[in-house]
Design goal:
Blueprint (H helix, E strand, L loop, with lengths): L1 E2 L7 E10 L5 E9 L7 E8 L8 H13 L3 E6 L16 H15 L4 E10 L1 H12 L4 E7 L12 E2 L2 E2 L2 H12 L6 H4 L4 H10 L5 H5 L6 H4 L13 E7 L7 H8 L4 E6 L17 H14 L11 E6 L13 E6 L8 E6 L8 E3 L26 H4 L3 E4 L7 E5 L2 E8 L5 E9 L5 E10 L17 E7 L3 E5 L4 E7 L15 E13 L13 E2 L5 E5 L2 E8 L6 E14 L5 E13 L2 E17 L2 E13 L3 E12 L2 E13 L4
Parallel strand pairs: 1-25, 4-5, 4-6, 6-7, 7-10, 10-11, 11-12
Antiparallel strand pairs: 2-3, 3-5, 8-9, 12-13, 14-24, 15-24, 16-23, 17-22, 17-24, 18-21, 18-24, 19-20, 19-23, 26-28, 27-28, 28-29, 29-30, 30-31, 31-32, 32-33
């Protein structure tokens, strides 16, 4: 990445600008703007997050926000209430209070003497979600958003449920937020006599969100609120949507470009869950330059040409050898002037010829361990590995070796006719690229709770032995399968630890299966290009402890229990400007017996540390999840230490009835 230190306008920074909400709650903002913005007002750009601007997102903030400010913007990074250096309490993600706070910040910014009255909003993941949700509320000053790695559907395409299946990331993310929000404000900003009171109040009211999310196992009003797919027309601001093929949120770009009536463009690269100017696998792109073109057009009224950009720009990845991490993905950029594209045709492939006996799908419960993380973000061993171990536990439909290469671009689908011997059963479908030597690389996958085959809002129990029709939609993908390789469609009824298992071992009789494959004419090379990545001066830090990620799968040969253990030590660094050192470590353990879905369990343990000049705090958060045939049982614990003194502890456990999950 090229570091830019000279900008058209000189930048000043305010590390703790207070923004007081109508109810008196003070939000803390880190703001960068041109030094002369008071004399020559500029548009504002808002990023509104719970992830702590002082020590959480500071790495990416430092690259991004000063860059925008140097090009004539007031760039505002706000800690949401109840997090970081802001007052108040947070009770859930994407609450009405959170969205109203963002609207109030937008109105506040537009009214400042240094602002020209136009505001943009941006973010990745949480910030990508809430900028779309805020846009749907139509605050008058909000003219444009840039949403990265986000979703339009909080139920069907987030970390909670997928295809009506309970994602295990639901529990993992609840554990993560329990840890993230357990940290105190910085005493240098909150004050020596005030930070502790704010912290203890925050801890006493800190929710563990898993029980709440489990109480909404179907697509009810809880999930509809904040899902902009309920009314795409509510979004009037111009939308630039960006995502990556190695991220869990790869479908949103297509959904937005297809459905938004306001000006909208989409970009999908080969990336994990990161901003695309420093993301991997490479190639990264000049995201900040791309963003400036968007902001300049919609916030300054400059004709930058972005309206003439192709509707959908995507990276078609070349086939590679399976690996848990790819530092780069060879391929090419393609462009579609409209999306859905008339150039993309669907190839229909019958997987079970007429008259054949049904395929029996009865996978061991540990099928899925080669699947990787739902949204990788550590630049480590989190990608899908060689699929052959999971293929061996699935029913596989191998196609003939390709005589010529094909480019897949879009969302493959598999239409099935299936009968289950249980009232509830899941089905998982993987599309794989099989190399001539047998290595199997995951292209895309989809899962479906068969009781949700007709509706996520009103599931219908299966009648054992009765054949039903279902449609399994796989995630969007951009992938070239070379000549000599084979397509494999692998079908299982377990996908651990991506989804929580059915309460009973099930057997599926698959009597018909049809693959619907979206194929684009073979690209001859790059059809569009991006400038190379740029960024402002990086965050200046001292490494106290280096980062390290480990992942182990073990099978107890005596008991048969299979255990996946993950340790992500994110290291510890000290900020060279304000001296705060922060460190964190996450540990996860997932266990299951291949023959017993009720043996499934998950455990997490997070450690967070903050220190400066003899002052130190530490939080330890842990959680556990298990189930029986009727209930989920989740528990959580928080411990908080000032120095080595325990100042807060709390335990909780809750039992939630299962409902066709």
């Amino acid at each position: 990445m090229k570091t830019v230190t000279e900008f058209p306008r000189k930048v000043v920074e305010f590390p703790d600008m207070g923004i007081v909400m109508p109810d008196g709650c003070r939000l803390s903002a880190r703001v960068w703007m041109p030094e002369d913005a008071g004399d020559d007002p500029v548009p504002a750009i808002l990023e509104h997050l719970p992830y702590r601007k002082r020590d959480g997102t500071i790495f990416r903030d430092q690259l991004t926000h000063p860059y925008f400010a140097g090009h004539g913007y007031a760039s505002i990074r706000v800690d949401m209430r109840g997090n970081g250096d802001s007052e108040g309490l947070m009770d859930d993600e994407y609450s009405e209070q959170e969205l109203q706070d963002a609207c109030d910040v937008i109105a506040w910014a537009a009214a400042q003497p240094w602002c020209n009255g136009n505001v943009g909003m941006m973010g990745i993941s949480w910030g990508g979600f809430n900028c779309l949700q805020v846009a749907a509320k139509q605050p008058p000053a909000l003219k444009a958003v840039i949403s990265i790695c986000s979703t339009v559907d909080r139920y069907a395409d987030d970390i909670h449920y997928k295809g009506g299946c309970l994602l295990i990331e639901n529990f993992g993310w609840a554990s993560t937020m329990l840890s993230y929000s357990s940290r105190p404000p910085d005493p240098l900003l909150a004050g020596d006599n005030r930070w502790r009171d704010l912290w203890l109040t925050r801890l006493e009211n800190q929710p563990f969100l898993m029980p709440l999310w489990l109480k909404h196992q179907h697509r009810d009003a809880y999930w509809k609120r904040g899902s902009i797919c309920e009314d795409f027309s509510a979004v009037k601001a111009a939308v630039l949507s960006i995502g990556g093929w190695h991220d869990g949120y790869r479908n949103t770009i297509s959904h937005l470009v297809t459905n938004i009536e306001a000006p909208v463009k989409g970009i999908v690269g080969p990336w994990i869950h990161k901003y695309p100017h420093y993301a991997a696998p490479t190639p990264a792109i000049g995201f900040l330059q791309e963003a400036l073109g968007w902001w300049d057009r919609w916030l300054k009224g400059i004709d930058t040409g972005v309206e003439a950009d192709p509707a959908y720009r995507a990276y078609v990845m070349d086939s590679v050898r399976p690996a848990r991490w790819h530092p780069e993905r060879p391929g090419r950029w393609v462009a579609e002037q409209e999306w859905p594209s008339p150039a993309i045709k669907t190839r229909k492939i019958e997987l079970i010829p007429a008259g054949n006996k049904p395929a029996i799908v009865a996978s061991p419960q540990n099928c899925g361990l080669a699947g990787g993380e739902y949204f990788p973000f550590t630049f480590g061993p989190e990608l899908p590995g060689d699929q052959r171990p999971d293929d061996a536990l699935s029913v596989c439909f191998d196609q003939p070796a390709l005589r010529e290469a094909i480019d897949i671009l879009g969302a493959p689908e598999v239409l099935v006719r299936v009968a289950s011997d249980r009232r509830q059963a899941n089905i998982a479908v993987r599309l794989c690229d099989v190399h001539p030597d047998g290595a199997s690389e995951l292209i895309s996958y989809g899962v479906l709770n068969l009781t949700h085959r007709n509706s996520h809002e009103f599931p219908e129990a299966l009648v054992p032995g009765e054949t039903v029709s279902a449609r399994v939609v796989l995630d969007q993908c951009g992938y070239r399968v070379p000549a000599g390789h084979r397509l494999r469609i692998a079908v299982s009824n377990a996908y651990w630890p991506m989804i929580w298992p059915s309460p009973e071992p099930a057997s599926l009789d698959l009597s018909a299966a049809t693959l619907m494959l979206p194929l684009r004419p073979l690209a001859k090379g790059d059809e569009v290009s991006f400038p190379p990545p740029e960024g402002a001066s990086p965050w200046a830090t001292e490494t106290v402890r280096p980062a390290n990620s480990e992942r182990h799968v073990d099978r107890d040969e005596k008991t048969g229990i299979v255990t996946l253990s993950i340790t992500d030590d994110f290291g510890e660094v000290r900020d060279l400007a304000h001296g705060l050192a922060n460190g964190s470590t996450a540990r996860e353990t997932w266990t299951i017996h291949p023959d017993d879905p009720l043996s499934a369990s998950g455990k997490t343990h997070w450690t967070q540390t903050l220190s400066r000049n003899g002052w130190s705090v530490r939080t330890e958060t842990s959680a556990e999840m298990r189930s029986d045939a009727q209930n989920f049982v989740v528990s959580a614990r928080i411990e908080a230490y000032e120095g080595e003194t325990l100042v807060f502890e709390r335990d909780s456990e809750e039992k939630i009835p299962r409902s066709l999950v």
